[in-house]
Structure formats: structure tokens, C-alpha cells
Amino acid sequence: MRLLVINPNISEDVTALIRSEAERSAAPGTELVVRTAGHGVEYIETRFESLVAAGAVAEVIAEETVQGGVDGVVVAAFGDPGMPALKELADVPVIGITEAALCAAALQGQRFSIIAISDRITAWYRDCVERFGFGGRLASIRSITEALRGIGTVQEDFRPTLVELARRAVTEDGADVVILAGAPLAGLARDVADEIPVPVVDGIGAGVRLAEAVVGLASGTHRAGSFAAPPLKRRAGLSPALDAALDAAQSAHVAVAGSPS
């Protein structure tokens, strides 16, 4: 199995954290192709930054799927930039680490809390939880309130704070499970699990393991329905890779539906 894991921000140090946790999480025999967004921002905190990142992720998916040989895609930023729309582009499963972490948390407890790296990011995260249908099971979102020294050093700089936020989510908010949100926290769950009295979910690990599971199910592709490829129509200004990826997706849809509509 070959999985494409995409960092939707431009920080290579975050990509290194993603790669490390993805490699530790992947099953034997899973090959990982880890890519960083070609344009965008240092780290994603807002809906608009997510919008910018979605286009960058689409480009990476297009480049890799045009070349072939990818069995699944993991969008490795909490908030899942471009999801679920990216499912319309690829003919392989596309899994965001938010939906993966939420599903993993829901399997382990009734209510969960999210621990985030900034206050500004929490509104977008709350939107994502609602969009995935888990709003009724969200106990809280707690976040770091201090300025970040650097996105690649959040774990080093704020480990005690993050652990304390998780503990308060359990004791004060009633969380049965805690999600450490965001690629900058990749791998931290392994290190602090003994310090938090409920299951702790890592988005990268959840994304890789659930992507492997969905690929293994071999359920088929979205060639019809609401996640089918966008309808054929005139377009302009897209990159050659994105044009080719859309052509391939639309051709598969037409072959099944019998018409471009």
C-alpha cells in the first residue's frame, strides 16, 4: 500500500514531525510519500488560510495521482483544508486527520475534547467538528493562549501547558477522550499518554491508520453521487497537473454515468 501524506502548510519542520509520526504509525508494508504544500502559510489558523491551503493540497494530489501508484491520501492538517471537496478529485480514498481523529475518539468514548495550539484556531475547529456531525459529542476545545515562539517547537515550548489543558478537559469538561490537534503536535500523544487519564488521540496516527483501513476495505470509488467528479465544463488557468487530474476523474464519471451530466 502506498499513501500520500500532505502537509498543507509550507513549514518543512512540521513536515518532519508529520513524517516521523506517520512512519511510526504505518503498518509494515505501507510506503509513505510525504509532501509539503508548494504555496501557502507557515501554519493554518483561520478559514481563509484553510482556503488557500486547500488549493495547494489539490495541486499535490493532482501531481501524485497523475503519476499513478497512490492508494490513498492523508491531508495532514487539523481542520482538513479542502475536505470533503478533495474527495471529488481523486479516485482513491482521501482522509483528513480531523475526520480520522474524530472517528477514532468517538470509538473510544462518548465525549471528547480538542487541545489546540492557539485561540484563533478554535472557531475554525468548531466549524469542522459540526461539519463532520460530531458537535453533540464535543466536550470542549481548549487552547494555548500565549504567543508561539515557532511552529516547529510548540511541543518543546508548551508540553506542560498542553498536558494541563488535557487534564482540565477531563476533570472540568467531562472528556472521555482527548485529541491533540494539529500537525505541530504530531507524536506528542505517545509521549504524554501516561500523564493524561483518558485515551489521547494523535491526528497523524489516526489519519494514517484509518486511511490504511479504508484502502483495505476496497469499497470502490465515487463515480456517481455527491462526491463524483465535477461535471464537464469549460475551464481556464489551471495547472497542467490539475487539468489532467480533472480530465481523468471526469472521464471515469462519464464512463459510469453514460453522459457528462
UniProtKB/TrEMBL annotation:
Belongs to the HyuE racemase family. This is Asp/Glu/hydantoin racemase. Pfam families: Asp_Glu_race. It comes from the Bacteria. It comes from Sinomonas cyclohexanicum (Corynebacterium cyclohexanicum).
